[in-house]
Amino acid sequence: MKMKAVIFLCISLFVVNITTAQDKSEPIVIADSVSKDTIWEGDYIGLNVYPAFGMVGGGILPSTKIFLQYKHNWEKSSLRFSANYINFNSRDKRLDIVHVGDTTVLLRQYNNNIFTLDMRIGYERFMPFDGFTFHYGIGAIGGYHHYGKSYYLYKQSFSDYPIKGINQPYEQNMLGWYRADMFKVGADFTLGVDILLSDNVVVTVQYSPELAYYMFLDSEEDDDANVFDKDIVEDFMDFRGDYIDLILSVKF
């Protein structure tokens, strides 16, 4: 959460600086026949570049959302379509001691592989001003969710009892895994600001929480040690309230 706050603060300052600079410099020239309402009309293609800010604060984000978006604007409303990839960077910190020998210890470590591929369609309303707009909207979500877990065995050497001076692992093998395929359906909500950088370039900062229901479809596993008995996934609902999008869009 601390890293999120730092990133959001940086983006907010970026937006304020651009808006202030536009106020102090010459405003974007709009032809007499084009009003501040109609200048936003047209087709836009945009990319969410917010994950690039994950380096701010010295770590990766809890979940990384990358999407390519097409948006068509009318005078004060818009329709959006997007293809989204979300990678959930959740770590399984479990570590099991499987066997202790005279000079080596055998450890079991776990990895997660959880991601979503979905499509979205949404409707938004916006309030245009000179050089920027405020918008809000709602969208429908449908797609595929992958829930995967695996474990590895690491053999490590140590110097003495009690176990001291454990060295880096010199042997590892993936021995077990569990995978579930799920169908994702839900809705997202958008609230943000669009800033006109030039006649055909727009940067958008928006808050975009989502509520989704995940339906179990199928699963596979190879788990002779039965360590994933408590990790079997079922249908569930999940609310994600920490998504911030920074979208760079080009009008065409």
Number of strands: 11
Q: What fraction of the residues are assigned to beta strands by DSSP?
A: over 45%
How are the strands of the biggest sheet laid out side by side? 1-2-3-5-6-7-8-11
**Low-confidence blocks of residues:** 22-34
Query: What Rg is obtained from the alpha carbons, in whole angstroms?
Result: 24 Å
N-C termini distance:
37 Å
The overall number of domains is 1
Task: Return the string of H and E elements.
Answer: HEEEEEEEEEEE
Helix content: under 10%
Mean pLDDT: 81
Oligomer: single chain
Indicate the structural class.
mainly beta
Topology:
Elements: H1 2-24, E1 42-48, E2 63-73, E3 77-88, E4 95-100, E5 104-128, E6 132-157, E7 171-196, E8 201-207, E9 210-222, E10 236-240, E11 244-251
Antiparallel strand pairs: 1-2, 1-11, 2-3, 3-5, 4-5, 5-6, 6-7, 7-8, 7-9, 8-11, 9-10
Question: TL;DR of this structure?
Answer:
The chain has one domain. The chain has one helix and eleven strands. The protein has one helix at 2-24, and strands spanning 42-48, 63-73, 77-88, 95-100, 104-128, 132-157, 171-196, 201-207, 210-222, 236-240, 244-251.
